[in-house]
Fold this sequence. Notes:
Largest sheet: 7 strands, parallel
Strand order of the largest sheet: 3-4-2-5-6-1-9
Number of strands: 17
CATH superfamily of the largest domain: Tandem AAA-ATPase domain
Helix content: 40-55%
Number of domains: 2
Distance between the termini: 68 Å
Shape: globular
Amino acid sequence: MKFKPHNYQKYCIDKVVNTEKVGLLLDMGLGKTIITLTAIDELKLNMFEVSRVLVVAPKKVAESTWFREAEKWDHLKLLKFSAVLGSEKKRINALNTPADIYVINRENIPWLVDYYRNDWPFDMVVIDEFSSFKNQQAKRFRALKLVLGKIKRLVGLTGTPAPNGLKDIWAQIYLLDQGERLGKNITVFRDRYFNFYRSRSDPYGKYELKQGSDKSIMDRIADICVSMKAEDYIELPDVVDNIVSVELDAKARKQYEKLEKQMILELNSLEEITVANAAALSNKLLQLSNGAVYDEKKDVHEIHKCKIERFMELVEELNGKSALVFYSFKHDLDRMKSTLAKTGLRVRELKTVQDEKDWNSGKIDILLAHPASAAYGLNLQDGGNHVIWFGLNWSLELYQQANKRLHRQGQKEKVIIHHLVCSNTRDEDVMKALQSKGDIQEELLQSLKARIEKYTGGKKQ
Length: 461
């Protein structure tokens, strides 16, 4: 197939070719992969500017996305790939296989740096989902930092560079300029652009942008970053959010409220309610909303079938249309699979490249996936236009990225995102937080405080 780049894609290709270290902060669906591959093809095969290219990506993306994208386009046919995946023996064999582009999952970056030590061979590195390098203390960041001086060209690709605010952007920009624009270390960055606040409810404290700092930060990095939103450059079908209310029956409501009260009162007895213990309780309450909970031994106890039953009604309402279904907990997956097994529908878990291909070929009616394993890079827009969230989670980044598996370039139909929300449960709090797109941690704490007051009137027990 012949590649006819849009004007914005031509601009980005030129930016990568002409800028040694660059961040493409492109919204999902704008074609980050084809842009980057076209630039690599130009730099390696036409300009002879680079010799060995390393692509670092989430595991499932590393397994297939880059190879398949290159196979689609005529001008990329000469590029040779090697997948540095699997066991250590397989990874070493892949590194010793002649190729132009070597693709590795991000978890193996510390191993790769240690393997080569002082003989780092990659003069160009592409980091797919750049935001996964936002933590300056993570092993993957610290390992890559050791070899920055040996990397001539670096490209960072992401649609969500700062999902939790601009405090996340320092480490990513450091990989591009080694601290030139935002400071040599995270402390300098925070002191310059943020104020620090600590409260009794959050002893760890949090950083808030100083007035005008957001513009200052973006101005500082504008020369090495390209930021584009999909709605400004491509016309995608609309997205329709559908909130599907799930009502608990009398018995289930009684069980839910009893367990919710017990757990919230236990939490309220702590000296301080932190994000960590608030998140742990929220996790348990979300399990309850979905219908089952784990005990200390990881045994599953089903509390109600209300959400499962509503889920099956929703599947029936689709009238044969396929659906990509996201779940939160393994017991959700197991209960859905058990129930769906009685229907005759073609049901599959998203595990392999073949599952992705079969979905896009119309061979799957219900594709079950965890948002963490399907959030990045996968192209599922050819297989359907319905997303069902059986269970929600507090990660705005995972939520947005997962929905973009269907709502991306090539989708021909309106994308409908169904949210199964159990009324008067923690589900409603999470749905509200995701819709507000604000400070998710603050939403978590505030919504939990409201539930504490429901049972205590604001008093410590």
